[in-house]
Request: fold
Amino acid sequence: MEWEKDGTGFTSTRGSSRNRDVGRHPDTPARGAAEQLALLEELKTLAAHLGFEVRQEKLLREVGYRVRSGSCRVREAHVILLDRALLPNAQIDILVEELAGRSVDDVYLSPAARRLLERAVPAAAAPERPTP
Reply:
């Protein structure tokens, strides 16, 4: 184990806990369950601010058709359906995909949410390739 001396005594340069996130580099944040849920709630709030109704429902799957999460229009309302059976990170991906490219300059977002949306914009703006 490597040791270095600071003003209060000797300290280890490695994390002393079995939890590897304790001694991680500060530039590489871990995204735990609580952070994912907070990010999911922030994106749902943003979607509501942009005029979407976000509904988390159990999307039933039956023989003959495939149901998946995403946006749709019900009468005059814009709705984003999220399957409750999906993990939070999959629900985050769906919301980011649906909200990418929309103007969010006047809305406060956490740096993590803003980064996700900015990274998704080039993918959403890219032209679709023809299928061979």
Remarks:
- The longest helix spans residues 33-49.
- The first strand starts at residue 3 and ends at 6.
- The domain at 30-123 is CATH 3.30.2010 (Zincin-like).
- The beta strands are 3-6, 9-12, 52-57, 70-74, 77-83.
